[in-house]
Amino acid sequence: MDKQLEQTRDSWINAFFTGNCVVLAEHEDQNFKVINEKKGMTESNLMRYEKIAHAVKNGVWKPQKPNVLSEELEFNRELTQCIVTLELEDEATVIQELWVYQEAWKITELRFCKVMDRIRMD
Questions:
Q1: Partners of 100 in the beta sheet?
Q2: What pLDDT score does 89 carry?
Q3: Which of 21, 43, 49, 65 has the highest count of CB atoms within 10 angstroms of its CB?
């Protein structure tokens, strides 16, 4: 299960950094959202795809890769959910990805947390 999630995450991350909305849509749940707790913003996948496609079309899609200090994967007992927690080197920000397995791994949420507000597996 870990290997399949790892391959899916790698594909999803690569799609984001290359601006490939088709592949992003394959790996993101239809109700996927990005939550930025610091800015108090929530963004749906459709809104994101439009912004990414526009930036790619105009040659300005150049997202920066974060400097990751640590990465932790926490699975539920059934191995059908996983929270990936990334602690960054240069910021007081924690990034969390919530993945769910139903025939394939899909990401349902990407959260930029205030450090003390991380989600945890029950």
A1: 81, 106
A2: 83
A3: 21
